[in-house]
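Sorry, explain these tokens?

***
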Amino acid sequence: MLLPSKFHNCRELVAAQAKPTLSLFAFTGEREIVQAASDPLLLHVMVGNTQAISVARENQRNQRFLDRLDESELVNTLSEQELASMKQVHALQEMPYFTLGSAQTPLNDLLNFQVRAEDGSKIKVSPRLLSKYKEQINFGELKASNHFYYVFAIEASELSALKAGTYSIAVAIDTRKQENMWQGWAHSNTLNVSLSSIHPDPNWEGSSAQAAMFAHYLINDKRFEFAELHAHQWTQNHPESVDAFSYLGDALAGLNQNKKALEAYYKAAANFTLKYGENPVEIPRTLVAQIDALEELGENTQ
């Protein structure tokens, strides 16, 4: 992780009242991952064909809590015509997208967003906000903290003409409106991204990446069965990971699709039972709580 060398962790950084270094991490599309598990101050980016960063991944898996969002908070700016145009470009009906995650600090404005080729030439792109949500993560001594996620997409038609290679994405973020430790600071960093494949990698790790992916499918393609198929594929490819359907349920519940969310949660519980037997201890308490809450809705379930 990219912190001043004299600071070994984020708590020392805060204690010293030094200016935090928000950094974007470099990916090449390989199975490399930059560990940022202990540092909630770092801004991280997940891009379509990469393995995702997961902040406090081990704690997050056990203490995941996804706040419910009203439909009004989910943003879908893509028209049917735009969707049809993208589907002509990509047989899988996917759109390259990335997620900005900012621990503790909601992002107010993207001041600038630029993509440059290796020769320095600018590439015109129009990132679109697809959805946003926040997740509560336990950072140990830092206690529970909200982690904010913003899922953006780059239109496939804008990238279809690009050659495979590494491009630079520069993002400048204004957090001056926040009444917290970030006040008065703007940050700009660069990320190198391989576009050798712009389809999402099914081998991602991390509940946030999975929930973001499912939300992307559901919001833009309007295809529950496609997201469900991906959950099946994830479970088959990763027999040690039996909770893909719980992530799908999170995304559906976030869209207020409670009936479908409940179906996904049932499948997740069944997968846990198949792997661990009837021992209820092995079924995450958060999953049980989600099922109980949706079942209580009864006739109000959509």
Summary: The beta strands are 44-47, 97-103, 109-116, 122-123, 128-138, 144-153, 166-174, 186-194. Residues 1-105, 137-142, 171-209 have pLDDT under 50 and may be disordered.
